[in-house]
Amino acid sequence: MKILMLGWEYPPHISGGLATACQGLVESLLKKGHEVLFLLPKAVEEMQSERFRLISASNVELPKKKDSITYPLLRKLIPNVDPTQIHNLSGDKYNFSGAYGPNLIEEVYWLAVVISKLAKELEFDIIHAHDWLTFPAGIIAKEISRKPLVVHVHATAFDRSAKINHEIYEIERQGMLVADKVMAVSNLTKKIIIDKYHIDAKKVITTYNGVKQKDTSQNLDTSRFKEKIVTFLGRITYQKGPEYFIEAAEKVLKKDKNVRFVMAGNGDLMTEMIKIVAAKRLSSHFHFTGFLKGREVDRMLAMTDVFVMPSISEPFGIAPLEAIQANIPVIISRQSGVAEVLPHAFIVDYWDTNSLSEAIYGLLNHKSFAKMVKGLNRVALQNLTWGHAAETVSSTYQSVA
Amino acid sequence: MKNICFTFLVHQPYRLRNFHFFEIGNHYNYFDEETNAKIMRQIVEESYLPTNKLMLNLINTFGNKIKVSFAISGTALNQMEQYVPEVLGSFKELAATGNVEFLGQNYSTSLSSLKSESAFYEEVLEHKRLISRLFRKRPKVFLNTGLLYSDEIGKMISNLGFKGVITEGSSVILNGKSPNNLYKSTSRPPLILFLRNTSLSDDIALRFSQRNWSEWPLTSEKYLGWLNALPASDELVNLVMDYGTFGEHHKKESGIFDFLEFLFRHIAESKDLKLSTPVEVLKSVSAKAKLKVSKPISYTGTDKNASAWLKNEMQQEACDTLYAMEDLVKNTRDKFLHQDWERLKTADHFLYMNNFEEVLGNLFNPYENPYAAFLKYMNVLSDFQLKVEDKTKKSSKRKNTRSLIKNK
User: Fold this and answer.
1) Ramachandran region of residue A182, left (φ > 0), alpha (ψ -120 to 50) or beta?
2) Residue B294: exposed, middle, or buried by beta-carbon count in 10 A (0-12, 13-18, 19+)?
3) Which of B21, B24, B357, B367 is the mutation pick for testing A, counting most A CBs within 10 A?
4) How many CB atoms lie within 10 A of CB B118?
5) Can you tell me the distance from the alpha carbon of A362 to that of A354, in angstroms, rounded to the nearest whole number?
6) Which of B313, B369, B378 is facing A362, going by the closest CB pair?
7) Which of B333, B323, B303, B331 is nearest to B381 (CA)?
8) What per-residue confidence (pLDDT) applies to B400?
9) Which domains, and CATH codes, for chain A?
10) Per the CB < 8 Å rule, is B317 touching A344?
């Protein structure tokens, strides 16, 4: 099948797990014989191979003339973008940042404007839109091409912050309503889609992410500290539960000073977390690394003895899978979708820092326990490939095509 | 006449309290008195008391035609004394009829037969003393934790003066032979081996209330028919099961009590079958052949060997850590430390740490998963280690002071 895929990021342009997930899925779909046209706001460089094309929306010239079908449609669906502005841009390009900056919502709608042109020019059998960022574009593409639309929900507004952004919620809901099928990255997310977006359960299909098989034999720096290292790796935002990690660290350190805690990543709560750590007088055993890129992540993992993901709401969570690959025992919160695919993972409720600290202490101090957790998780990981994910996605396409 | 030997297993471990690692070093109590008392009361009310009463009534009606044997663990007896003394009275009543035999065991239902010969001897003697104190009986036949047995274990049991031992009629050791005869161990003098009839025991213990079982509902007449259909060369049938089978695993509503009562009535009235205890069988039946058991067998877990308790790394680390402390604990000569040590040895703690896949049956397992079981156990063990070390230091200090005074 020829798939028009809409995404916001693609390697090497990475800010969260979305780019990695898109790439893993695309590569496996290609292996299955599908063709993929991948549109994103801004690509570092456009790529083209036999069955894959990466299209940067920033390079697409907008239509020169008013078009009697498209313009009313855009006005109806995305009233936020002023048509005169579109008119002014005719024959020109919209310069996307492709980031998650203050213009995000505006860029989301401009991507829909770009697709209104491409949907007429490109040939494809199905539209696959990743997350709310591309849902308006997906809706427009469907309206114009009359091809089926599948939306892929990697996260919902309920996972992003304690306060729901209603504008985004509405974009998400519209996308899910118009879509022929909705793919959710876990049963946890599926449940949110059914309960909070009121989408027909029959339309929602759980599609677990895979994890790229990686060569873990390479020799990376190991720790320069004599203490053991416990790592939190991810965005430092409300949904990731960073303060519970600090609380657990405090409890472990009361019992065992021979441990260092690392919070790797950045996010809107970073400065607040630094303040909390200082107020608790933990700074000598607690470190912040800021945002880590590809190889730095591998190095961080190579130094890690225990990996913790205490997310309050995690639709899936690829990071612990990477830690498992690096042969690290992981602890994940029950509120993480990834817990569904790791039946023998060590699971705690994110707020239960007593159990969390006890598990960290146990994994650091009992070899047999760490070995069991690692071993059983690795077995589970073997079944968690992008190939399997692509199979579910393929059959979802078939069900609507 | 075929001998039908019913052996009822009565055991409860001292379950651990939710002992958090913050508490390590505080030397608080390890055991969950509330839960242990609750579980003991529940099982006594639902199972032990009504079944004992049924047994007593049958004995009053049929006299010597009703015979059974009990294997009651030390930790169960102590919890009965502590929490529900009336059930102990009811067991004593049964003991006084003379129709009931008590089997030898290791006090805490431990894995000492695999881990430490000296600990094993001590535990067996301690259990013997307890049975003698409570029931005025001297066990002659032995039943090890989970029916664990090997030639090696047989030697130890024989050294302790037992005449026979009950173990699993495992196909691995039988090689096509019938479990319904007596066999001899390889030790000298040979121990007589009683083999549990696996399928006939499990028909009652496991399958009785399974509605999807092709033989459901199991009536006493049907079961009697199976016993009668056994070949004439079979001299005895060992039916070994948890006492909780009656009223606990299979609730009263399943009809289990009626089944038991009528089965016993039928056997008591039968010309071809008789209820016996192991010691009686020893007198009337002679052993057929020698059985070699080079690796431990048991009736627990899917593999019916020691793996249910000691398969994975957590079980092994926990168990090795525990037994490494044996001499230190002994040397403290501290009654309370000794008591903790006995209760920590109970094999159930290791069974809770078993892999996720194994079906563990009705255990009142207090843990969500094996990890939690391991963490709690290791927290307690860490604290216990500290306690023992403290005591050791204190007593060596005292000795030093004493010798200083002497030297002066």
Assistant:
1) beta
2) exposed
3) B21
4) 11
5) 12
6) B378
7) B323
8) 74
9) 2-210+385-400 (3.40.50.2000), 228-382 (3.40.50.2000)
10) no
pLDDT digits (tens, 9 = 90+) for A207-265: 999 988 776 555 566 667 789 999 999 999 999 999 999 999 999 999 999 999 999 99
pLDDT of residue A81: 66
- According to DSSP, the β-strands at A228-233 and A259-264 are parallel
Q: Which residues have CB under 8 Å from A103's CB, separation 6+?
A: A97
Distance from CA of A372 to the nearest CA of B (A): 7
Torsion of CA B241, B246, B249, B252, to 10 degrees: 160
Specify the range with the lowest mean pLDDT, choosing from A10-14, A89-93, A138-142, A288-292: A89-93
Do the Cβ atoms of A37 and A2 come closer than 8 Å? yes
CA-to-CA separations, A73 to A60, A61, A137, B173, B318, in angstroms, rounded: 19, 19, 12, 80, 68
Report ipTM for this prediction: 0.82
What secondary structure, in 3-state letters, does A104-138 show?
Answer: HHHHHHHHHHHHHHHHHHCCCCEEEEECHHHHHHH
Q: Which residue shows structure tokens 């960290």?
A: A360
pLDDT digits (tens, 9 = 90+) for B55-86: 999 999 999 999 999 999 999 999 999 999 99
The structure tokens listed for B133 are 């104190």
CB spacing of B313 vs A368 below 8 angstroms: yes
Residue in chain B nearest A371 by alpha carbon: B313
3-state secondary structure of A395: helix
Residue B357 touches chain A, beta carbons under 8 Å: no
Confidence at residue A354, expressed as pLDDT on a 0 to 100 scale? 96
Q: Which of A368, A373, A377 to mutate to test the interface with B (most CBs of B within 10 A)?
A: A368
- Looking at beta carbons, which residues of chain B come within 8 Å of A376? 356
Q: What is the pLDDT of residue B261?
A: 97
Res. A79: pLDDT tops 80: no
User: CA of B324 to nearest chain A CA: how many angstroms apart?
Assistant: 16
Give the separation between CA A359 and CA A346, rounded to whole angstroms: 8
pLDDT for residue B407? 61
Looking at the predicted structure, is the pLDDT value of residue B349 above 60?
A: yes
B317 touching chain A per CB within 8 A: yes
For A154-169, the pLDDT digits (tens) are 999 998 877 889 999 9
Q: Where are the alpha helices (DSSP H) in B237-369?
A: 256-269, 278-284, 307-310, 313-323, 326-332, 335-345, 348-351
DSSP assignment of A8-56? S--TTS-SSHHHHHHHHHHHHHHHTT-EEEEEES--SS-EE-SSEEEEE
Q: Which of A251, A255, A362 sits opposite B375 (nearest CB)?
A: A362
**What is the C-alpha to C-alpha distance for residues A253 and A357, in angstroms, rounded to an integer?**
9
Minimum-distance CB partner of A372 among B313, B378, B379: B313
Say how many CB pairs under 8 Å bridge A and B: 53
The single-letter DSSP state of residue B5 is E
pLDDT (average), residues A287-315: 92
Pairing of strands B273-275, B236-242: unpaired
Put simply, the answer to whether A366 touches B312 (Cβ < 8 Å) is no
Do residues B299 and B351 make contact, with C-beta atoms less than 8 angstroms apart?
A: no
Comparing CA positions, the residue from B192, B216, B191, B195 lying closest to residue B206 is B216
Distance from CA of B316 to the nearest CA of A (A): 8
